[in-house]
Amino acid sequence: MSNQQWQQFIQTSTSPKNTGDISPLSDHETVMCDLSHLGLLQIDGADAFSFLQGQVTNDVKLLNGSTAHYTGYCTPKGRMLAIFLVFSHHDLIHLQMPRELIEAVAKRLKMYVMRSKVAIQDVSDSIIKIGLSGPKASELLNNLFSTVPQNDYELVSLENGALLKLPNKHGRFEIFTDINHAQTIWSALSSHTTVADAAHWEWLEIQAGIPDVVLATQEEFVPQMLNLDLIGGINFKKGCYTGQEIVARTHYLGSIKRRTYLAHVSHVEKPNPGDNVLNAANETVGKIVRSAASPNGGYDLLAEIRCENVDNNQQLSIGGNALAIQSLPYPL
Description:
The chain has helices at about 5-15, 50-55, 100-110, 135-140, 180-190, 200-205, 245-250, 305-310; strands at about 30-35, 40-45, 70-75, 80-90, 90-100, 120, 130-135, 155-160, 160-165, 170-175, 195, 260-265, 275-280, 285-295, 300-305, 315-320, 320-325. It is α+β, with helices and mostly antiparallel strands. Helix 1 runs parallel beside helix 5.
């Protein structure tokens, strides 16, 4: 079954009354999302771990099949090309990122394989990704699976896939499985959840303070600007990797002058990643990282901004509308 057939299955098997893509949903509802907008690269081979270790900001050797983490992929100048959600499943490494990055990232990684015993494969279509979030998420999964992860970034490997718990105050999970089992899982969950679109999952990611890099923002940020160090996405004790010198210097010199903030903007067209954040003098002081419609109207977003502008409570705006800084779920 192709991804197109999977999409057709979702459309025909989901009751219209359970579809919540007309307006944004709150995180008090239990929702299920098709995550086909996310791509997945699989790295296999005897040298897979050592190869990736030299490419990314986090320590992939800590991935033991029961954990996942975020990691950055940088240029030699420390500028970010992608953020991966990485996990190991049955000795295969998987890198999750926006689907629009898959082709370019795969091509770049393959340039550095050389004589290493490594195979890089796009499995975005063959591994189905389903998101589940809300107060009843854990209970629903317990009815379907023998084991459900309890802690953030805990991964449970199952015979026909894997379950991963992600940050969220009510509980948020990602299900990885093959297309046949995905149909059974989707059918079982759809009658007990509201089916939401990718935009709602984006909103949940924003509320969790999880940054991202897309085509429009590649090479705009160093990892600390996107709080990658604050969500456990950088390991400062691991060996060398591409861009390490810049990332380490930023950390040890304490020169982090820009951070990513949670914010809200009202009565404006949807902000896009890469759009400028302006101060009262109409000077650019930051950029939008990701955004999604808010259940309360307007848009919630993550924006990378100069710290002094936020610390001094300066007036900030996007598209002529005031930007209201909100609290992240972790301390800056």
